[in-house]
């Protein structure tokens, strides 16, 4: 397994109740970092998250899924992200062009969010097939924003259409 040294804990936002993010999210400075399994056929990635967004699906999740459900212990919400690979399973296909240090973007599934393993945290574990490399663009310091432009970017574009 390829990896760099990672801390034992991370900051994360957890949903302590359901409702609007201002009322339902609490910042925890020392949430446990997820770990990669050590089995030899792992195609999982441990990604240090650098950018996230709250999109309409996140807001619905916060309002509808109560934090007290048994499968949502210290639930971390969030779908979209951009970040950097810090560890990866040995079976990640070489043709994907992924390695430790590669900048990637993607989204976790609603199943992971429902289980409390979303992206409003310092790290996330995700299958390699669910990420895309962030393109190297010279002169554009905001390239990481590509990972959070999904629904949030589309919503912003619709809202500012016609605004001059």
Query: Helix tally?
Result: 4
Beta strand count: 8
For the sheet with most strands, the description reads:
6 strands, antiparallel
Low-confidence stretches: none
How many domains would you count in the coordinates?
1
CATH homologous superfamily identity:
Medium-chain alcohol dehydrogenases, catalytic domain
Query: If you compute it from the alpha carbons, what radius of gyration comes out, rounded to the nearest whole angstrom?
Result: 16 Å
Q: Which of globular, elongated, flat, extended, rod-shaped describes the shape?
A: globular
Describe this structure in words.
With 164 residues, the protein is an alpha+beta fold. The protein has one domain (2-160): Quinone Oxidoreductase, Chain A, domain 1, CATH 3.90.180.10. It is 17% helix and 29% strand. It contains 4 helices and 8 strands. Strands 1, 4, 5, 6, 7 and 8 form a 6-stranded antiparallel β-sheet that branches. Strands 2-3 form a two-stranded antiparallel sheet. The mean pLDDT is 80.
Question: Keywords, please?
Answer:
164 residues; alpha+beta; Quinone Oxidoreductase, Chain A, domain 1; 6-stranded antiparallel sheet; two-stranded antiparallel ribbon; 4 helices; 29% strand; Lipid_raft_assoc_Zn_ADH; Alcohol dehydrogenase-like N-terminal domain-containing protein
Topology, please?
Blueprint lengths: L1 E2 L5 E7 L5 H4 E8 L11 E9 L3 H9 L15 E9 L14 E5 L2 H5 L8 E5 L3 E3 L17 H10 L4
Antiparallel strand pairs: 1-5, 2-3, 4-5, 4-7, 5-6, 6-8
């Amino acid at each position: 397994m390829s990896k760099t040294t990672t801390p034992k804990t991370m900051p994360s936002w957890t949903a302590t109740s359901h409702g609007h993010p201002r009322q339902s999210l609490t910042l925890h400075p020392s949430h446990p970092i997820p770990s990669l399994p050590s089995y030899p056929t792992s195609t999982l990635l441990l990604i240090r998250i650098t950018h996230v967004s709250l999109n309409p699906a996140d807001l619905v999740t916060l309002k509808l899924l109560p934090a007290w459900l048994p499968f949502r212990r210290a639930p971390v919400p969030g779908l979209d992200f951009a970040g950097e690979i810090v560890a990866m399973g040995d079976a990640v296909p070489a043709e994907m062009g992924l390695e430790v240090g590669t900048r990637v973007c993607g989204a976790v599934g609603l199943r992971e969010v429902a289980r409390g393993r979303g992206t409003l945290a310092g790290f996330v574990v995700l299958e390699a097939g669910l990420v895309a490399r962030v393109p190297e663009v010279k002169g554009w310091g905001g390239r990481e924003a590509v990972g959070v432009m999904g629904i949030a970017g589309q919503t912003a574009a619709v809202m500012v259409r016609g605004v001059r």
